[in-house]
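Protocol step 4 of 6: structure prediction from sequence.
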Amino acid sequence: MIKVIPSGPFSVNTLIVSLEGSDVFVVDPAGCSYTGDEKTVDEYLTDLNLNLRAIVLTHGHFDHTCGLKDLKNKYPSVPVLIHKNDSAYLGSESEIEQSKTLSALGMYDFIPFVSNLPFADYFLEDGKTLSQCMNVEDSAFSKWRVIHTPGHTKGSVCIYNEEEKVLISGDTVFYHSYGRTDFEGGSERVMQKTLENIYTFIPKDTRLYPGHDTYGFMLKDNLIG
C-alpha cells in the first residue's frame, strides 16, 4: 500500500510506502515550516503506529527534500538514501546547490529551509535493490529496485517494484508529461533517452506514483511514448 500526502511547496506527493507489518519507508518528504505542514508526515506515522525504516529521495531538488531535516530530527537513526549524482543537494553546504534552482525561480526566501540538510547515509545505485543499497538482508526492501533516470537532474531515480507492478517515478514521469529539463543538471536529450527506456522496458500495466499532481495512473494510459 502507498499513502500519498501532498505537502510542501508545489504540493509534492510525499509517499508512505508499506513494507511488511507496520514497517514503511518515506519517499520525498516535503512538508516544512515554510508551508506550515512540517508535522504532517510524522503525525501520519505516529497516528498509525508505523515504523519508519528509511527515507528515499528520488532527486535532490528543494521541494522534495525540504522536509528532510524535520523528519531526520525526529527519527535520527533512520537512513537517508539518494543517488550519488544528486548528493550535493544534501549536507552542510546544501544551500549552494539548492540555490541554483531556487535562484532560477526567484525563491530566495526559501534558501534557509534547505540549508544544512542531513547528509545521505547510503547511495541509490542503478539496478540495485534498496536492501542492497543499505547492505541489509530484508525481503521487503529487496522488492524495490533502483532505476537511474537522469534528465530532470543528474541523479534522478525511479523506484520499481516488479512484483507489485508499481513505479515511483519522482519528477521523471508525470501524467501526460515529464519533469523540467531546464534547471541546473537537467538535459532534454538525456531525458528523452530515459523516457524511451522506461516506456520500452517497464510493463505497460505498471501503476505510477509521480512526484506531483495525478498519481496511481497506469503507464499504458499515459500519452508519452
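Step 5 (inspection) to follow. The chain has a mean pLDDT of 96.
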